[in-house]
What does this fold into?
Amino acid sequence: MAEVDGIKPIYADNAATTALSEYALSKMLPYFTEQYGNPSSIHTFGIAAKNAVENARRTVAQAIGARVNEIYFTSGGTEADNWALFAACRLKKKQGKHIVTTQIEHSAVYRTALELEKQGYEITFLIPDTYGLITPEQIADAVRPDTILVSVMLASNEVGTVLPIADMAAAAKRYGALFHTDAVQAVGHIPVDVRGLGVDMLSLSAHKFHGPKGAGALYASIRVPLAPMIFGGGQEKGRRSGTANVTGAVGMAAALEESVNNLERDASHLTFMRDHLIAKLLTLPGVSLTGHPTQRLPGHASFFVSGVEGEPLVRALSDLGICVSSGSACSAGSGEPSRVLVAMGYEMLRRESKERAAPVRISLSRYNTLEEMDRIVSLFPQAIEIAREKTAALFSFDDTVFDE
It folds into this structure.
């Protein structure tokens, strides 16, 4: 990574993706270069690869309190989310066509719900409060006899708020609806136990906890017979065909095992840095916190900065050697305001608003340091000044900008 003024840049965008851990890499390497067999083959190389995949499945299951036969490997969180929603529709087609989800979901759930709506399903999108919270009472009020699925994320990718999933799942059972949670941001960062949560399905993704990109998993309770996602050679118990991503599964399992084994230590380190950063940045004029002040992920800090646009601010910080984001990585560069933050009541993000304000997400990992937090704090005012100048030049806060 290129240095800025002779100093290594600070990577603080771990909610988007994390660095692959050395431990995970060391476990993956043999399956690139030595044990490269196809796990569907019955010779020595194939058997070694199959054993690696099944050992990885066992590790992932143990990490989240699941049974081995309840874990299905996917290409990541997006596929797992899609699979959960479509599978629920097929499984519960005789019960009804009503789905409950929220306006704060990741696009992998939100856009899938919109697609199902086009196919004739009725979708209830619950509205969060200003902290990004949905309550169990909202779930209880929304479910009805024809509700087939409730899908609510365990932790927000944009503001870091952790939601009360166990209570929500209990409320969803009133009429026998299935409950799915997108736990992509939570697994490996906070304790996650599928039995304790009471969920029927759960999605996770390796690259959010120092595993490789392109590897994920869907937990589906043995009570949920999944419909096939991909047809072909019958891999993943006939539910997801295609040659297994051996290195991805191995790397994901290793990274998750490492994260879970060090969960308490890492959470303490991350929470201390997060709170230090939040306390310092909130002393700056025009900076305010988004998300719940305490009920949030250990390494997640999110803010609003007044008088700026998101892209100029993120670019200004990047030029100063600080890598953060203005929201979800999946929507970065779209130019569209965050639907999540608008749903939370931040009306200044709407295009017709004349009040400029930008969200900034600073997400940390075990590799960040307190010294880096102090450097972020010291450079933040300069970045804001640069961004405000660029924003003023772009918009001039003129009414004609909003008439286009």
